Amino acid sequence: MNILMIGAGNVAWHLATALEQKGNHISVVYSRHLDNAQLLAQQLNNALATNHTNFSEVGADLAIVAVKDDAIAPLVAQMQLPPQTIIAHTSGNTPLQVFEHLNGNNDFGVFYPLQTFSKNSPVDFTAIPFCIEGINANTETILFDLASQLSPNIHSINSFERKVLHVAAVIACNFTNHLFAQSAHILQREDISFDLLKPLIQETIQKALNNDPRETQTGPAVRNDTKVIQDHLQYLKNNPSANALYTSLTDSILQWYT
Amino acid sequence: MNILMIGAGNVAWHLATALEQKGNHISVVYSRHLDNAQLLAQQLNNALATNHTNFSEVGADLAIVAVKDDAIAPLVAQMQLPPQTIIAHTSGNTPLQVFEHLNGNNDFGVFYPLQTFSKNSPVDFTAIPFCIEGINANTETILFDLASQLSPNIHSINSFERKVLHVAAVIACNFTNHLFAQSAHILQREDISFDLLKPLIQETIQKALNNDPRETQTGPAVRNDTKVIQDHLQYLKNNPSANALYTSLTDSILQWYT
C-alpha cells in the first residue's frame, strides 16, 4: 500500500517504520517542521519530506494523520488530497466527524493503536490492540487489513466507544500514575526509597489484571478497618493533597463494598 | 535455626516452607484451628501441630507470629515462651510495642516480608524486600541473617517507617486496584472488554516504575485540557462514583502540575 504519513512524532515514527517493514511504501512524510519530516524520511525507503499540505499530485492509497488532537481539524481543513486517497487519523479522542470538513470527497476513518509510544523505545505492535472505524464498509475493510499486518488484535470501535475507552484509560492509567507519584512523594518525605514498594506494586497489578480487579480489592477500606484509616489520615494531616485523595478513594471503595 | 510458627495462613505457609528449604527446622505450627495447623505441619519435616499457646517446653530459637493484625496482641498476652526464644511478627501495620505485654523477658522484633501472598501461588522470596526491626542490635542481627537466607533485599525499618510504607502501599496498590475496577466497570456498562486496555496499562506502569512517576504523568489533567476533562465528566454524569473520583484525581493532578 502507498501511504502518505501526516506527522513525524512518536506514533508516526513507529507506524511508518513498522508499515514499511511489512512491505508498504511511505511515499511522503509531512511535518509542520521540515526538519522533523526529514528525520523520519531518512529512516524510510525513498520517502519525500515536506511541510506543504497540498498532496493532490502525490500517489497514495491512504493518508495517515498522526498529529496532536487539536492539530487534526486545522490540518484537515487546509489539506488537498488526491480523490482516491482514504484519510484516517490515529487519535483516541477525536471523533470521525473531524473529517467532515475535508476539501474533497475522500473516504475517511480511524486507525488507532491503543498504546502509549515513546521515542527510542521499541514497539511490539503484535501486543497492541488496533481500534478501527470507517465511514463505510469498504474503508473499514481496508483499514482492518492494514492493521492486520501489524497485530492480530483488531477491533471495530465507533467514536462513542472510543471516547468511553479514553475515559477508562485516563482512570486506569493517568490516575494510577498519579497515585504512584503521590506514594513516591510520601516515601521521599521520610527518606524511604520507592524501590521498596515496587515488588508489591508489580504483584498487586498482575493479580488485578489476571483476575477481575473488583474481586482482588484488598486494604483497610474494603475491610472497613476504621482504626487503620483514621491512623493513616492522621499521618497525612500535613499533606493535604494526599489526604484529600486518600479520603475520596477510601469513600469510593467503602461505597462499592460495604 | 529452630523455629516456632504461630499461624497457618498464607504468610506462615510460604515462610515456613521456604525457611525449611534453607535448612531451618519448624518444630511447632500453632493455629487457633488445629486443622489448619495440621495442614501446614504436613508440608513440613516433623513439625508438631497445636492449638495451645503454652510453648514453654518447646525448643525454639525464634517464634514467628504470622497472624492477622488484630490477633497479635491477644495472642502475645496469653502466650508462654521459653526464656531464650526471640519473638517476631510479620505485620506491616503493627508496631514493635505490641510485644511489651509479653509474659516473659524475651527479646522481640519484626520480620516483615513486604509482599502480598496468595495460597497456591508460588512465591519468589528473592524478589521480596524484608523489613527488619529488633528491640536490640543482637535481635536485629539474628532476624537480618535469617531474612538473608531468603532474599538479598533486607532493610532495617523502624515502626514509624513501616507505618509510612503502609500508607504509601495503600495508595499505590489498593487505590490503584480500585481505579482498575472503576475502569473495568465503565467499559462493562458499554459492553467493551477490559482486555482492550491491558496492554496500555502494562506499558504505563512499566514506564512509571522504570522512571520517576512524577515525570511520566500524561493525560488531560497534566495538560490542563479543560475541553477533554469537561467531556469526560459529562460522559460520567450518570456514574456518580466514577465522577467523584475523576474530579478529585483531576484536581490533585492540576494542583501538582499547573
Q: Could you explain the architecture of this structure?
A:
The structure is a homodimer of 258-residue chains. With 258 residues, the first copy, chain A, is α/β, with parallel strands linked by helices. Chain A folds into two domains: 2-157, 3-Layer(aba) Sandwich (Rossmann fold), CATH 3.40.50; 162-257, N-(1-d-carboxylethyl)-l-norvaline Dehydrogenase, domain 2, CATH 1.10.1040. The first copy, chain A, has helices at 10-21, 34-42, 69-78, 137-148, 159-189, 198-210, 226-235, 240-257; strands spanning 2-6, 25-30, 48-50, 62-65, 86-89, 108-113, 130-134, 154-156. In chain A, strand 1 (2-6), helix 1 and strand 2 form a beta-alpha-beta unit. The radius of gyration of chain A is 23 Å and the shape is elongated. The termini of chain A are far apart. The model of chain A has no long low-confidence stretch (mean pLDDT 95). Chains A and B meet through helix 5, helix 6, helix 7 and helix 8 of A and helix 5, helix 6, helix 7 and helix 8 of B.
Oligomer: homodimer
* CATH hierarchy: architecture of the largest domain in chain A: 3-Layer(aba) Sandwich
Low-confidence stretches of chain A: none
**What name is given to the CATH topology of the largest domain in chain A?**
Rossmann fold
Taking all residues together, what is the mean pLDDT of chain A?
A: 95
- N-to-C order of helices and strands of chain A: EHEHEEHEEEHEHHHH
Rg of chain A, alpha carbons: 23 Å
Strands ordered across the widest β-sheet of chain A: 3-2-1-4-5-6-7-8
CATH superfamily of the largest domain in chain A: NAD(P)-binding Rossmann-like Domain
Largest interface: A-B, 81 and 81 residues
* Category from helices, strands and their pairing of chain A: alpha/beta
| Shape label of chain A | elongated
Domain Pyrroline-5-carboxylate reductase catalytic N-terminal (chains A, B): 3-87
Pfam families (chains A, B): DUF2520, F420_oxidored
Domain DUF2520 (chains A, B): 128-252
Protein name (chains A, B): NADP oxidoreductase coenzyme f420-dependent superfamily
